[in-house]
């Protein structure tokens, strides 16, 4: 089945020739068994035996030619198939490359950008903004969410820095106040110590002055008594001198009167 018509026809012709030759050979062999002598000349016997060879060779030649033709057809089909498959493979490769580029631009690049942004946020780099999304899809939503998170973290970091600066300022102010209080306490203690020592000295001085005042009062009383006594003595001397002068003058005037 599936053999070319020429080959089938040549095969039928060869089969017919073979059957005819076999029939003649069988007849000759049958006659040989009866002992009737040669029933076919040698030349005819040879021609009868070789008669199917031409048709058999023709079948072989036709079959070989058909095989060669089929091989050529198969080779052409295989070459065509190879070309088609090569073109299909090239097209598939081009499509795969195009798809890879599309996937890279559409998915890989946004994912890489998101990973880089997440890495910066993990390292507390809140100053670098997240790249804006090229497409409004899930990756774009993630990029917007990361940007909002970065802004919130940057604001929180600024507030934390301001709070820490305020705490440092308050601590420095408290340290200054503590130093001033310690200086005031030291100065107050020194002043109180000085006042205490001065009060002691003043108390000693007051006691000394009180003692001196007591002695001065006694000395003043003695001086007053001595002065009073001296006054009395002076008054007595003055009275005596007055009496003496009065008497002397009286005597002098009396003597003058007697001489006159």
Descriptive tags:
260 residues; mainly alpha; 89% helix; HAMP domain-containing protein; membrane; transmembrane
Write the layout of secondary structure elements.
Elements: H1 5-32, H2 42-122, H3 138-259
Helix pairs in contact: 1-2, 2-3
InterPro entries: CDP-OH_P_trans, CDP-OH_PTrfase_TM_dom, HAMP_dom
Domain HAMP: 105-158
Pfam families: CDP-OH_P_transf, HAMP
Task: Please explain how this structure is put together.
This protein is mostly helical and 260 residues long. It has a domain at 5-105. Helices cover 89% and strands 0% of the residues. It has helices at residues 5-32, 42-122, 138-259. The termini are far apart. The mean pLDDT is 76. InterPro entries: CDP-OH_P_trans (IPR000462), CDP-OH_PTrfase_TM_dom (IPR043130), HAMP_dom (IPR003660). One of its GO terms (molecular function) is phosphotransferase activity, for other substituted phosphate groups.
């Amino acid at each position: 089945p599936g053999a070319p018509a020429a080959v089938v026809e040549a095969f039928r012709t060869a089969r017919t020739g073979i059957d005819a030759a076999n029939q003649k050979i069988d007849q000759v062999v049958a006659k040989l068994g009866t002992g009737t002598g040669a029933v076919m000349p040698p030349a005819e016997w040879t021609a009868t035996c070789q008669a199917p060879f031409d048709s058999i060779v023709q079948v072989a030649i036709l079959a070989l030619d058909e095989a060669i033709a089929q091989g050529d057809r198969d080779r052409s089909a295989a070459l065509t198939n190879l070309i088609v498959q090569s073109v299909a493979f090239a097209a598939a490769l081009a499509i795969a490359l195009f798809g890879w580029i599309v996937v890279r631009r559409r998915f890989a690049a946004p994912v890489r950008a998101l990973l880089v942004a997440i890495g910066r946020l993990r390292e507390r780099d809140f100053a670098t903004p997240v790249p804006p999304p090229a497409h409004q899809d899930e990756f774009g939503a993630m990029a917007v969410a990361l940007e909002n998170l970065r802004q919130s973290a940057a604001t929180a970091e600024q507030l934390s820095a301001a709070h820490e600066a305020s705490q440092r300022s308050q601590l420095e102010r408290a340290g200054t106040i503590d130093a001033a209080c310690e200086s005031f306490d030291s100065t107050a203690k020194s002043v109180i110590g000085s006042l205490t020592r001065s009060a002691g000295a003043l108390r000693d001085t007051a006691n000394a002055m009180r003692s001196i005042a007591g002695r001065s009062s006694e000395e003043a009383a003695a001086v007053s008594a001595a002065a009073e006594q001296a006054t009395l003595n002076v008054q007595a001397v003055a009275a005596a001198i007055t009496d003496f002068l009065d008497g002397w003058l009286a005597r002098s005037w009396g003597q003058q009167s007697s001489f006159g």
